[in-house]
Design a protein that fits this description.
Distance between the termini of chain A: 22 Å
Strand content of chain A: under 5%
Helix content of chain A: over 70%
CATH superfamily of chain A: Farnesyl Diphosphate Synthase
Strand order of the largest sheet of chain A: 1-2
Largest interface: A-B, 54 and 54 residues
Number of strands of chain A: 2
Radius of gyration of chain A: 18 Å
Shape of chain A: globular
Oligomer: homodimer
CATH topology of chain A: Farnesyl Diphosphate Synthase
Number of helices of chain A: 14
Number of domains of chain A: 1
CATH class of chain A: Mainly Alpha
Structural class of chain A: mainly alpha
CATH architecture of chain A: Orthogonal Bundle
Largest sheet of chain A: 2 strands, antiparallel
Chain lengths: 276, 276
């Protein structure tokens, strides 16, 4: 398959949907809606929503039934970046080539924009239930809340903040950061796409296996690109070998889905070989 | 009814439930769970969860079916206080007689604790659906997300931050801040209790009327105590008259519920006459 044009087409679809779902700047109070749109729209690979859409289609579901949740994943990702960039956190003045949210709108709006994006993502996740069973939507909300909570993304950040202060961590702690900080939301994106696509319990196990593996690969590649984390601990070669093995295992788990999982296979390779 | 002992008994019930629901400090990473418990447990009137429980009982529902959501309301309230206290926002060193979260644990943990509390509240709202219809739980999540989003609590804060910077606002803007900043979550607490108590569509209109009115009264009394907001604009006497009239109208809306609404009536009087 032509991954490049597939990605481009999906990014367009997701960007259009994000623009439609996010509150308009014409709505009062405009300042916060402007900051929300600034932080979500524009540049962005949209990996999380693309994974959710692909997982939904792999299990035979329709794109329309997962699009709001897929956009919620991207909005959650944006919230985490806005708060990460704050002076009290990583203190980054730039994000994707533009001034970071708090640099552009001030620190108070930076805090409130992250809060507003996180809140809005749950509003989005709880709407559109006409497309599926309410109990599945509740399960999706639980899965996401766990993936970004203190045993997921926030947990990874807390331990990472602490590790940076100490200047080094034991391998077990590194493993914890690896699976939680970025991997948890990536894996959850895959699971959520499958759940909203109406996956069977048996197929869900396979999809889950794929999601867990590529979540880890995503974080390992981050570390390879930053020469940080696992790379400092195990060295470039060992991390590359681990990432290769995990990608093979992820792709092997997709066998039951046949041709419908072609995008998920290509995405696994893409995540392994990306250079951004 | 003896409101004082009613409040005390309900506070005990809610504090016990909060202690049970919130992640234990023994769970890794302990630092964030410690900061979460520090920010929620201890002092606190628990007005929002008490209103939710009372509204549930007024419509004939059971306390057990609303307890997790009631605790989520208190956790959301705590998140808003933790982020409000940050240096970029109100810059408060103390909260309820103790060092504020960021003073105690550092600013990075302050940001992350607010995020973690907000995230956890949605996890709590999405669980326990065995006690009721999933579609009602989804409706509750939507109601809460709206009440604390950019057309609710966050919207009120954004406009308030802007008003403080300008040093004055027109009456319409004051009205906006009044209904959103504190009132929206108070009103939502009442609606949510009724929804989870299995309220009929007709009774819901009455309960909603009550909730909207006491949400406004709550904010007016805040302004009377702080000599701020509406008081600066209309004067003490006019605000007191408005608050009295709204309380009467709120209580009048409870007529269809008879004796079961006794706590809601007493709570309306309590909110009007409180001195904290």
């Amino acid at each position: 398959m032509d991954l490049k044009s597939y990605l481009k087409q999906r990014q367009l679809l997701i960007n259009k949907a994000l623009g439609r779902y996010l509150p308009s700047t014409a709505r009062f109070p405009g300042a916060i809606h402007k900051a929300m749109r600034y932080s979500v729209l524009g540049e962005g690979k949209r990996i999380r929503p693309i994974l959710a859409l692909a997982a939904c289609e792999a299990v035979g579901g329709k794109v329309s039934s997962v699009l709001p949740a897929a956009c919620a994943l991207e909005i959650i990702h944006a919230y985490s970046l806005v708060h990460d960039d704050l002076p009290a956190m990583d203190d980054d003045d730039f994000r994707r080539g533009k001034p970071s949210c708090h640099k552009k709108f001030g620190e108070a709006i930076g805090v409130l924009t992250g809060d507003a994006l996180l809140t809005f993502s749950f509003e989005l996740l709880a709407s559109g239930s006409h497309n599926g069973a309410s109990s599945v939507h509740l399960q999706v909300i639980r899965e996401i809340a766990k993936a970004i909570g203190t045993d997921g993304m926030i947990g990874g950040q807390v331990v990472d903040v602490d590790a940076a202060r100490r200047g080094g961590v034991p391998p077990a702690t590194m493993e914890y950061i690896n699976t939680r900080k970025t991997g948890a939301l990536i894996s959850a994106s895959v699971r959520i796409g499958a759940l909203l696509g109406g996956v069977s319990p048996k197929a869900y196990q396979s999809i889950r296996h794929y999601g867990d593996r590529i979540g880890l690969v995503f974080q390992f590649v981050d570390d390879l690109l930053d020469k940080d984390g696992a790379v400092r601990l195990y060295g470039v070669e060992a991390v590359r070998r681990k990432a290769n093995r995990l990608t093979e295992s992820a792709i092997a788990a997709l066998a039951p889905f046949g041709k419908k999982a072609e995008p998920l296979r290509a995405l696994a390779q893409f995540i392994l070989t990306r250079d951004f």
